[in-house]
Amino acid sequence: MSTNSGEASGGMMIEACGLSKFYGPFAATQNVTFSVPRGQVAAFLGPNGAGKSTTMKMLTGFLAPTEGSARIGGFDVSTQRLDAVKLIGYLPENGPLYHEMTPKSLLEYLGQARGLKGSDLAGRMDFVAQKCALKTVWNKTIGKLSRGYKQRVGMAQALLHDPEVLILDEPTSGLDPNQVHEVRDLIHSLSKTKTILLSTHILREVQVCCDRVVLISAGRVVFDGSVQEMEGQGHDMEQRFRELTKARLT
Fold first, then answer.
1. pLDDT tens-digit series, residues 39-94
2. What is the pTM of this model?
3. Which residues of 66-93 are buried (b: 16+ CB within 10 A; e: fewer)?
4. How many structural domains are present in the chain?
5. Is 119 found in the same domain as 16?
6. Strand runs (DSSP E) across 61-144, as ranges?
7. Are 214 and 169 part of one and the same domain?
8. Strand, coil or helix: what is 81?
9. How far is CA 166 from CA 198, 220, 237, 242, in A?
């Protein structure tokens, strides 16, 4: 099946094809290859510095790969970027926000930039405000919000245009236990209609939210399989994580 028309090959919504990023002699990632089918929630795991955020930036078009390609919904992120990014909701790590704006003004601005207007924009703003529990800080300056609320604003902007694909880099970072539970419930509800790639350090989050695990270490994929396969017979995902990443670090 051709992907030039934007048709996802084999129903795959996220495709990393040999993605490598070099900074001089240093390889941030090397030949990262995996794909996520429509409707799946895939965890993207790895130690600090493994190349997770770099890979996510290449998948979303924020960073150009040195080698390889990325496709979203069948659209090549490098050559068909506008078509690809229409399908993506991206929450970067420590997401960039305009701190002098309020959640309301930021989401209105971003919605207009994505072509939303009138009742459509108002409806989507109301939806994400409720889903991300932002009403109590709706008109407060973002720079004065707690880290947890800033993270909620980041999630709201990722959901605003109702994208088919969500790429979330540490979505529960900085949240308290109640907020973490709410975000997990939100991800679970969104998984019924969206394809999600979720980066996290919290293995319990993987067990609760995800169908599949892609594990990266030292810039390379070292495991790609179901959550059950990652747990192994001993059902100890933390031990498996250490085993699979230690081999790459020694």
1. 999 999 999 889 999 999 999 999 999 999 999 999 999 999 999 999 999 998 77
2. 0.88
3. eebebbbbbbbbeebeebbbbbbbbbbe
4. 2
5. no
6. 67-72, 75-76, 88-91
7. yes
8. helix
9. 8, 22, 24, 27
